[in-house]
Design brief:
By secondary structure, the protein is α+β, with helices and mostly antiparallel strands. 33% of the residues lie in helices and 28% in strands. The chain folds into three domains: 270 residues, 3-Layer(bba) Sandwich (FAD/NAD(P)-binding domain), CATH 3.50.50; 86 residues, Alpha-Beta Plaits (2-Layer Sandwich); 77 residues, Glutaredoxin. The chain has a six-stranded mixed sheet. It holds the Pfam family Rng_hyd_C.
């Protein structure tokens, strides 16, 4: 076995597809016997949406999505960011429920040849042992990637620290079958009260989403409808006719970041590597971890890159999560700070965020918080046919875009690089070398610089 991915959540499935595109063998293990049908995320926001276009997945996701496209506004905690024209909105979104998202990703990974073993739980890393329906068995994967979520067993077994904070605020979130008129008096968005906050909203006709946040210890056992009623009475001072429960959950939010993303042959990605205390960023960052790591691991197992390339995964992705932790901590603070101090903070932050430059800066932090240069989706003409950069990137190969008939660069590129001679009115340079994850590793220059970028594409 070349690569074992632990966890068939969105990040593990995305990684499996990327590994297969790169030509690596992959087995995904998940302890759940069946896919997780809990609603959780309502969509994807940020650069991952553009990355799905690079893989030809945007259309499949759009078929599932309620909305797909640029966002004119987006909440930063309690403050609405307005990406008013003429500036191009920095954020794109696909509104698709997490179980549908996972179904699309599983279908794609399987089509590409990944094996998904559900009902198989990782027990130990050394020796690599999994407990399946027929008992425990061993394997010898060359690399193991923990995409096994917040309570990652891989992280624990690899001895990787997960410092940070978990706050005392409990979020109760439930979906209920109810008619909208029952909620005529309810507010949309979070209703801030002295004892906490309440959200009543609906994304699907006949289904109402109710959230209650309050500082309170987590009770034992599974969440119950009675508990939701009691929490509403405490925070709102009133009850709501919730209807028949479909799904109830309780979570406390955490702000945590793994100390390292790699320990020898073991890697972490997604929630196993980072937990953010405000919504909207976890899947964007987690799925982009998978895109960064997939081609690197595949190149190393295929023997076209050395093991050192794998160190660039931590170097490139850890700072992104650290920066995302900063912006989500601020969102959480803006949301949670109570009383007059909280009102003052929200008022002034809202005034600052109304400046277009500030809104754009925050929008870019939400988009990817990444300092690496990514290739823009330029319109091109290749062999007389119109196309786009995103379409050329579908095969997840390293591509040399030659915009100025640079025979010297084409010659220097060598056999592992796909060469695309293209006409482009907005070409940013004579030539670009673009990694499979869309990072520009070379931007015009001498053949020697191109050879260097190909030999050491990681930062
Ligand atoms: C209520 C709620 C709302 C959310 N809303 C949003 C949102 O709007 N936007 C957003 O971006 N994010 C949101 N999130 C967060 C998002 O759901 C997670 O970031 C995402 O699921 C993380 O994906 P993952 O693949 O890293 O981990 P997970 O989805 O947690 O998947 C981990 C998988 O690993 C498996 N596993 C664990 N241990 C083992 C083991 N030992 N052996 C084998 N398998 C194992 C588990 O069964 C699971 O399938 C929300 C989360 C919740 C709870």
């Amino acid at each position: 076995m070349e690569i074992a991915v632990i966890g068939a959540g969105p990040v593990g499935l995305m990684l499996a597809a990327e590994l297969r595109l790169g030509g690596a063998e992959v087995v995904v293990f998940d302890r759940r016997a069946a896919p997780d049908e809990r609603p959780r995320a309502n969509g994807l926001v940020g650069r991952i949406v553009e990355q799905l276009d690079h893989r030809g997945l945007l259309e499949r996701f759009r078929a599932e999505a309620g909305y797909g496209g640029p966002l004119p506004r987006f909440p930063f905690g309690p403050v609405t960011l307005d990406f008013a024209p003429p500036s191009r909105p920095p954020l794109s979104a696909l509104m698709v429920q997490q179980p549908r998202m996972e179904a699309v990703l599983a279908e794609r990974a399987t089509e590409l040849g990944a094996e998904i073993r559900r009902g198989h739980e990782l027990v130990s890393l050394d020796p690599f042992t999994v407990r399946g329906p027929d008992g425990e068995y061993r394997a010898e994967p060359r690399y193991v990637v923990g995409c096994d979520g917040a309570h990652s067993r891989v992280r624990e077994l690899a001895g990787i620290g997960f410092p940070g904070t978990t706050d005392g605020e409990l979020l109760r979130l439930g979906h209920f079958r109810a008619d909208a008129p029952l909620f005529a008096s309810a507010t949309r968005g979070w209703d801030r009260r002295p004892g906490g906050r309440v959200l009543v909203t609906s994304l699907t006709p006949g289904v109402v989403i109710v959230g209650v946040r309050e500082v309170t210890p987590e009770p034992p056992g599974e969440p119950t409808p009675e508990e939701f009623h009691a929490a509403l009475r405490r925070v709102l001072g009133d009850d709501l006719p919730l209807g028949e429960p479909i799904w109830l959950s309780r979570t406390t939010s955490s702000a945590r970041l793994a100390t390292q993303y790699r320990a020898g042959h073991v890697f972490l990605a997604g929630d196993a590597a980072h937990l953010f205390p405000a919504g909207g960023s976890a899947l964007n960052v987690g799925l982009l971890d998978a895109v960064n790591l997939g081609w690197k691991l595949a190149a190393v197992v295929r023997g076209t890159a050395g093991d050192a390339l794998l160190d660039s995964y931590h170097a490139e992705r850890h700072p992104v999560a650290a920066r995302t932790l900063t912006q989500t901590r601020v969102q959480a603070l803006l949301d949670r700070l109570t009383g007059e101090d909280g009102d003052a903070l929200r008022t002034l932050f809202g005034e600052l965020a109304a400046f277009p430059e500030a809104a754009r800066h925050l929008g870019e932090l939400l988009r990817d918080a990444d300092a690496l240069p990514y290739v823009p989706d330029l319109p091109l003409t290749v062999g007389g046919e119109p196309t786009r950069v995103a379409e050329v990137m579908r095969a997840a190969r390293t591509v040399l875009f030659d915009f100025a008939d640079r025979a010297d660069l084409r010659e220097a590129a060598g056999p592992g690089v796909k060469i695309v001679t293209a006409a482009c009115a907005d070409a940013p340079a004579d030539a670009l070398l673009v990694r499979p994850d869309g990072v520009v590793a070379f931007r015009g220059g001498a053949p020697a610089d191109l050879r260097e970028a190909i030999a050491a594409p990681g930062r």
